Structures are given as C-alpha cells and as structure tokens.
C-alpha cells in the first residue's frame, strides 16, 4: 500500500466510525427532546421514563461520537496539511465555526443535561436538551459547508496559488452543502426512528412487561422515521442534477444506475478533464456505482418496512403480528449500511480530488512518511471502543427502562447478571 | 492590526482554558485508580469532575478549530511536524475520555477495574505529550527553508524537552489532587491533599530545573524573548510553592486556584517567549515562522471575528453557568460516572 492510501485509510477510518455514531446521535436527540418536553409539560411519568431510557442509549452512543470527532478535527492538520496550505483561508473558517458555534457548546450542554436530573428546574433541563439538539444540527451544517467546499469549491478566488475567501454567502448556500445536509439529517432522523422501533420490537418479541412503554416508543419512532425517509429519498434525487453540473465524472460513473445523467460517459469526461487539467487519471474507482446501489436499494427496503409497520399500527395489529417485529429488529442496522454507501459514493467518488478541480488528494498530503503505525493505533482503539460501546447500547436496550443509570445512580458493581437470567 | 492581537489572544485563552480544565481531568484520571481504595471511592473521585468533564475536554476542540480557521499556515505545519506526538496524545485522549464515561456503565467489578487502566493512561499520555510539545516549541523545531519540519525521536530526547514533559506531569498531578482535595471529602479527599502537597513540591523543583536546563542547554538560544519567558518560569515556581503552602494549610479552594494558574502559565511562556514567531528554528535561532505568516487573510479573520464576538462569550457563559450550577461538592451532585 502506498503512503497516500494509508493516509486516506486513516482518514476514512476516523470519519467512518465518527459518522456511524453521529447518525444515531442526530437521530435520537430530537426524539428525546420531544419526550422530555412532553414530560415537562404534563408531568407524564411514561415520558420521563422514555426520556431516561432512550437518553441513556443516546449518551452512551455520544461517547464514541465525541472521541472520534476530536480526532477528526486534527486529521486535516496531521495528514493533509496541503489542504490548509492551499485552502486554509477558506476551508478553515467553517471548521472553526463548527467547533466554536456547535461542538464546544453541544458538549457543555450535554454534560449539564446528564447531571441535571433532579437538580435543575424542569424548564431549564428541557431547554438544555433542545440546545444539545440544535447545536448538533448546527454542527452538521458547518461540517457540510466545509465538505461542500471540497465537493464543489465556491465563494473563493485563487491568487498566488492560494485560495482566498471572496463570497462567504456562496459557501453557506452551496447546493452541495444544503441538499446534502437535508439528505443526511433526514437519513439520521430515519436512523433514530428505526432504531427506536426496532429495539421496541425486541421487547414485544420477548413479551417483556413494558408493553405500554415500547408501544409508545414504537409509535414515536415510526411517526418520525416515515416522513424522514421520504424526505431523505427525495433529497437524494435532488442531488443528481447538481452532480451532473458540478462533478460530471462522479455522475458519469453512475451511468446505468441512475436515469437523469444525460449523455455523460466516463471516457468522454476523462478526455475533457485531461484537456483541462493535463494528463492523469480522473476516474474514481468503478465500485462507487455499487455503493450507490447499496444505498438506494437498502433505502427503498427501509422505506417499505417502515410504511408496512406504520399501517400495522392500526388497532395495534403490529403487537400481535410477530413477523413485523422480527423484520423491524433486523432493520435496525440497515440505515447504517445505506449511509455508509452514500458516504463512500460522496467521498470516494470525488477522487482523485481533495478540492474538486483545484487540489488533488496526492498534493494535499502532509510530508509525513508511512502512517501505518498510527493507522493501526487509531483503527484498533476505535474498533475496540466501538464494539464495547455497541455492546453496552444493546445491553441497555435489552434490559429495558427499569435498569437505566441516567437520572439515578448506577448500582455499585457486584451482580453482573440481572435477576431475570436466573429463570429457566 | 487589532486582528493580529485578538486571534492570538483567543487562541491563548482557549489553550490556557484547555490546560486548566482538561489538566484537572488528566490529573484526576492519573490519581483516581490509586487514591480510591475501592470502587465506591474511585467513583466518588471521578464524579468530582463529572458535570464538567465533557465541557472541559472540548476546549481542545475549540482551540483546534481556532488554530485551523485563524492560523491555517501554522496548523498544518505544527500538527504534521509533530505527527507521532500528536497521534499519541489523541489516542490517549480517545481512550481516556471513553473510559471515564463508560466505566460505570458496567455492573461488574472486574470490568470497572479494567477501565481504570485506560483512565490512567488517558491522563498520563496527553499530559506527558503536551509537556513535550511545549518544551519542543520553546526549544525550537528543525525548520527547513519552507518553514516545514518533521520531528524525530531524537528531537524529543533533548534534556530541556524531557524536563518539560516530567514537570507538566507533576503540575497536572498536583492540579488534579488539589481539585480532588477541594471537591471531595473524607478519606479520598485527605489522601488527595497529601499527594497534592508532594506533587507540588516535585513540580516546583521540576519547574526550577526547567529554568536551569533552559539556561544551560541549547534552548537558551532559541527563546526569542528570554526575559518574559524567564519571568513566567519564576512565577510558575512561586505559584507552585504557594499552592503547596495553601494545601498544607487546608485552604483547598485557594490551592486549586494556584494550581490552575500553574497549568495556564506555560501558555503565557509560549506566547510571550516566542513573539513575533509561532515556530522558531532550532538550527538557526532568531528565524522561524512569523505570526503574520501563520494567520489567515484579513477578510477571513474579520468574518470569523463577527461570529466569535457573539459565540465565544455565550459559550464561556454556559461554562461558568455549569460550574455555578454544580458548585456543590461531590456527593450532592448526582452520581453518573
């Protein structure tokens, strides 16, 4: 493997893990804010238990989101210093704003929310979870403004080989940022909703005592996931014309997989790009079309499953029809699979460019030798932590709302197994 | 002109805030597995920083963001130049942050004991790492003609740099201990006070040794403004000794204030000692990357200033609010960690 491949793998490992956890963070936060608000408004004990149970899972998931996010902030400077050399005047601004406007505030508020149970006035406590939600989505926006610049650099001019900010408004309204934000944010909401519905289905299948609790959770999950899935789908297709216009090579690579890319062909675009930028291979790997198919097909499958489940909510048919619950449980990982497909299409499909049409990935790399050691270091730490974190999430989800630490003190460690395991 | 003052000041503020706040996290992380005799005590120690932990750690994120946005031509050079040092610091922070938050999510005693390992290393590795970064920046880096550099292991084995690493460890240990002595009572609090007193003396000796080593070694050629750096170093020694006396007298809150100053002073030493440079060459003293060359265009900075003028005070207010809300000593705050 070349040094460049290793550097790209390291970035992809960090971003990939980050995205898997951030999706659920973005998806669950508004749902928890809604249940917490309903609890604060009418004092409903059910809503309080829902807030604490799903909030606990959210918080455990957030742990990996924040630590991988921290490494993300440093990856550009560590491994891609050419990016700041060339586009630091432009690309650094949205990232700086993301940290000050969003990340910094989000974590501060979340720490207060976690420890605020039984301590803060209800109105203040609810405000905190809404601030956490708001700053999480603000974070997504600024990140996609930065990423949108890499996909389709706008709002700048190049003087003396260095990009300079010319029109910040154009950067903020870059269609490659806005449409992707709506697409990714609604996909995240769908992820949160499907996760809630799937975990609730587990409890129906196990016939646990918390029927009312998970019936309410299922309904909330599906009511959010269904419209979110339609919007995500729509904003997926909305991006195709922009792609044809701004990244013809990526669009051409999808020939035969999408309809409206006109007459674009990979060979023709390659010839045009050679004419424009000089000799070189401007084709991304052909498998990005497969990544597109995975995203699209899995997306349709999720949509089908949640619409069927939504219909079955009528007269609680869902609770009696076990195959539906099985399918929804199996559906929990699907949004993550679809999102990985979409991410690969967007980022690998941009290659060989770091800044499309302006700076190649090879030119952006830091003058650091092989990154194999750090790749293995970060990769193994992330993998071990991710597996542990998912295992903890599954354990909390299985144990149900009676065994939640958030808002109360976790028991001192002795009994590893819950009493239920004593039963035959 | 003002922009050339505002942004270095903001970066300095965020870095100082990070060293003060995350410094106490790292100190507590290094101490909790040893000072706590059983699981309950260890959790008491960790919950002393419970409500502040997430807020403390993200000062680094904000500092990194400002570094990228306002100092893009330093950011890439610095991070890639000290690549493996920063990679180790980050890996340590990742493991430590996750361990602190996940430890009590396990019910079993053995799983919790396992997490004490990464909790300790997650305090130690970034602490030593930041000490080495500070020392190497003061002693200069091997810049080439384009002001790019790449550190080797030998660059870190310089006595001045190593002493900076060791002293930072003692300072953060003392800082964490003073925090614990202030925020927790009973046996763990008393043990923290004793440990803190010893660590403060070691740190004071270490800081004095850094000054001597700085004067005797090649580092004395690279510090651009020796007097401010020297004064800051003397202030560091004084503050550490005052902290030790306060801790001995049982004035834990004031002792913590003293160790907080000690944690922030290295940032002052860097800023005043290196101005107008942000990177100095170890091979050709008196040359390096100048502040003006490191910063983004005035247009970018003006834009960022508008956002920062609104957001930074708000976020700082939120942090102050957090400390005020949970000003009660541990034990009256919910236990989550």
Architecture blueprint of SSEs:
The complex is a heterodimer of chains A (424) and B (337).
Chain A: H1 3-42, H2 45-79, H3 81-115, H4 122-151, E1 156-159, E2 162-165, H5 168-172, H6 175-205, H7 211-246, H8 248-253, H9 266-277, H10 288-312, H11 317-320, H12 322-331, H13 334-348, E3 353-355, E4 359-360, H14 361-364, H15 372-399
Antiparallel strand pairs in A: 1-2, 3-4
Helix pairs in contact in A: 1-2, 1-4, 1-6, 1-13, 1-15, 2-3, 2-15, 3-4, 4-6, 6-7, 6-12, 6-13, 7-10, 10-12, 10-13
Chain B: H1 3-35, H2 39-47, H3 53-70, H4 72-81, H5 83-102, H6 109-139, H7 153-156, H8 159-183, H9 186-216, H10 219-222, H11 226-248, H12 252-274, E1 277-280, E2 288-290, H13 291-294, H14 298-325
Antiparallel strand pairs in B: 1-2
Helix pairs in contact in B: 1-2, 1-3, 1-6, 1-8, 1-12, 3-4, 5-6, 6-8, 8-9, 8-12, 9-11, 11-12
Q: How would you describe what is shown here?
A:
The complex is a heterodimer of chains A (424) and B (337). Chain A contains 15 helices and 4 strands. By secondary structure, chain A is mainly alpha-helical. In chain A, the strands form 2 sheets. A two-stranded antiparallel ribbon of chain A has the order 1-2. A two-stranded antiparallel sheet of chain A has the order 3-4. In chain A, helix 10 (288-312) runs antiparallel to helix 12 (322-331). Chain B is built from 14 helices and 2 strands; from the N terminus they run ααααααααααααββαα. Chain B has one domain. In chain B, 78% of the residues lie in helices and 2% in strands. The longest helix of chain B has 33 residues, at 3-35. The mean pLDDT of chain B is 93. A two-stranded antiparallel ribbon of chain B has the order 1-2. Chain B is an all-alpha fold. In chain B, strand 1 and strand 2 (288-290) form a beta hairpin. At the A-B interface, helix 2, helix 3 and helix 15 of A face helix 2, helix 3, helix 4, helix 5 and helix 6 of B.
């Amino acid at each position: 493997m070349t040094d460049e491949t290793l550097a790209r793998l390291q970035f992809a490992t960090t971003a990939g893990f980050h995205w898997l956890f951030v999706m659920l963070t973005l998806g669950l936060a508004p749902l928890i804010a809604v249940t917490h608000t309903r609890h604060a408004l009418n004092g409903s004990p059910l809503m309080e238990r829902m807030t604490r149970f799903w909030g606990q899972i959210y918080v455990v998931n957030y742990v990996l989101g924040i630590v991988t996010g921290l490494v993300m902030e440093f990856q550009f400077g560590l491994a891609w210093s050419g990016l700041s050399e060339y586009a630091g005047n432009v690309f650094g601004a949205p990232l700086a704003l993301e940290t000050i406007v969003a990340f910094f505030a989000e974590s501060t508020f979340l720490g207060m929310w976690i420890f605020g149970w039984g301590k803060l006035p209800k109105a203040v406590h609810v405000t905190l979870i809404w601030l956490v939600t708001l700053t999480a989505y603000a974070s997504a926006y600024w990140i996609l403004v930065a990423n949108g610049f890499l996909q389709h650099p706008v709002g700048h001019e190049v003087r003396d080989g260095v990009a300079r900010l010319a029109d910040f408004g154009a950067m903020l309204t870059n269609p490659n940022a806005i449409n992707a934000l709506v697409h990714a944010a609604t996909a995240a909401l769908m992820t949160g909703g499907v996760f809630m519905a799937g975990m609730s289905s587990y409890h129906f299948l196990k016939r646990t005592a918390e029927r009312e609790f998970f019936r309410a959770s299922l309904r909330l999950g599906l009511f959010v996931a269904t419209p979110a899935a339609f919007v995500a789908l729509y904003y997926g297709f909305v991006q195709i014309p922009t792609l044809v216009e701004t990244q013809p090579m990526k669009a051409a690579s999808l020939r035969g997989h999408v309809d409206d890319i006109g007459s674009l062909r990979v060979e023709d675009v390659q010839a045009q790009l050679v004419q424009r930028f000089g000799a070189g291979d401007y084709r991304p790997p052909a498998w990005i079309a497969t990544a597109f198919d995975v995203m699209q097909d899995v997306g349709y499958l999720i949509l089908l499953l949640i619409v069927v489940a939504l219909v079955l909510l009528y007269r609680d048919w869902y609770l009696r029809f076990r195959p539906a619950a099985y399918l929804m449980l199996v559906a929990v990982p699907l949004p993550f699979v679809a999102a990985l497909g979409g991410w690969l299409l967007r980022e690998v499909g941009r290659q060989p460019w770091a800044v499309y049409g302006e700076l190649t990935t090879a030119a952006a790399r830091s003058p650091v030798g092989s990154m194999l050691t750090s790749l293995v270091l970060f990769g193994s730490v992330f993998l071990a932590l991710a597996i542990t974190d998912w295992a903890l999430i599954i354990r909390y989800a299985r144990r149900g709302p009676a065994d939640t630490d958030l808002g109360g003190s976790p028991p001192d460690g002795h009994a590893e197994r819950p009493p239920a395991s004593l039963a035959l | 002109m003002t922009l050339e003052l505002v942004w270095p000041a903001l970066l300095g503020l965020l870095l100082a805030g990070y060293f003060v706040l995350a410094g106490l996290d790292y100190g507590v992380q290094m101490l909790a597995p040893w000072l706590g005799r059983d699981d309950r005590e260890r959790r008491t120690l960790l919950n002393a920083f419970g409500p502040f932990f997430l807020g403390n750690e993200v000062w680094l994120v904000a500092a990194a963001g400002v570094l990228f946005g306002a100092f893009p031509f330093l950011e890439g050079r610095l991070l890639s130049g000290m690549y493996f040092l920063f990679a180790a610091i980050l890996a340590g922070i990742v493991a430590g942050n996750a361990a602190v938050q996940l430890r009590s999510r396990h019910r079993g005693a053995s799983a919790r004991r396992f997490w004490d390992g990464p909790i300790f290393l997650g305090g130690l590795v970034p602490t030593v790492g930041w000490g080495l970064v500070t020392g190497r920046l003061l002693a200069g880096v091997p810049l080439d003609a384009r002001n790019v550099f790449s550190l080797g292991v030998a660059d870190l084995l310089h006595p001045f740099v190593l002493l900076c690493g060791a002293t930072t460890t003692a300072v953060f240990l003392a800082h964490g201990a003073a925090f614990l002595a202030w925020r927790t009572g009973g046996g763990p609090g008393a043990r923290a006070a004793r440990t803190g007193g010893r660590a403060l003396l070691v740190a004071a000796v270490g800081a004095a040794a850094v000054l001597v080593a700085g004067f005797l070694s090649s580092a004395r050629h690279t510090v651009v403004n020796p007097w401010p750096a020297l004064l800051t170093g003397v202030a560091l020694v004084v503050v550490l000794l005052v902290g030790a006396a306060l801790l001995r007298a049982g004035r834990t809150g004031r002792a913590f204030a003293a160790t907080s100053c000690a944690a922030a002073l290295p940032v002052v030493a860097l800023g005043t000692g290196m101005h107008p440079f942000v990177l100095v060459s170890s091979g050709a003293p008196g040359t390096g990357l100048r502040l003006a060359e490191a910063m983004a265009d005035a247009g970018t900075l003006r834009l960022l200033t508008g956002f920062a003028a609104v957001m930074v005070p708000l976020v700082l207010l939120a942090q102050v609010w957090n400390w005020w809300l949970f000003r009660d000593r541990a034990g009256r705050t919910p236990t989550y960690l």
